[in-house]
Amino acid sequence: MIEILTTGGTIDKVYFDANSAFEIGDSLLPELLSESNIHEGYKIRPLMRKDSLELTDPDRQSIVAAVKDSDCPRILITHGTDTMALTAQALKPVTGRTVVLTGAMQPARMRRTDAIFNVGFAWAAVSLLPAGVYIAMNGEVFEAGSVRKNLQAQRFERT
């Protein structure tokens, strides 16, 4: 069993029109998993609905506590990309579990999104990797503490 924790981020953003602000909507994760042909072997627990730039240290500690309190040895976390590396770093002291964070550069509700691929890829990563904390984005896996988001290139890279 894999526990999936949702925290919000771009993957769950809703834009109403070009002139309006975004908001974090209900997670499309069940649909994304279904589109990836993943129908069982998981449970979803929503933790928060925040843009990752709005996450605070107490929010990160809530995520760490949720991971520690989980009865599942494998945990997938959907997270905003801007501070994903910070949360992965906060999770690094957690031992005995495989924790994979993923998200999207474009909202799942958009036609040209990387959300479906990233969720499927992260599912494979959390299923196969040994215990540790990782980020799985755009076809690459990075260990916590050795990754950053390159804003200009819109990708993650090793540090």
UniProtKB/TrEMBL annotation:
Chain segments annotated as coiled-coil in the UniProt record: none
Location of the L-asparaginase N-terminal domain: 2-150
Signal sequence, start to end: none
This protein's record includes keyword Transmembrane helix: yes
Pfam families tied to this protein: Asparaginase
Keyword Glycosyltransferase part of the UniProt annotation: no
Keywords assigned by UniProt, alphabetized: Membrane, Transmembrane, Transmembrane helix
Annotated transmembrane regions: 115-137
Domain of life: Bacteria
PANTHER family: 60 KDA LYSOPHOSPHOLIPASE (PTHR11707:SF28), L-ASPARAGINASE (PTHR11707)
Protein name: Asparaginase
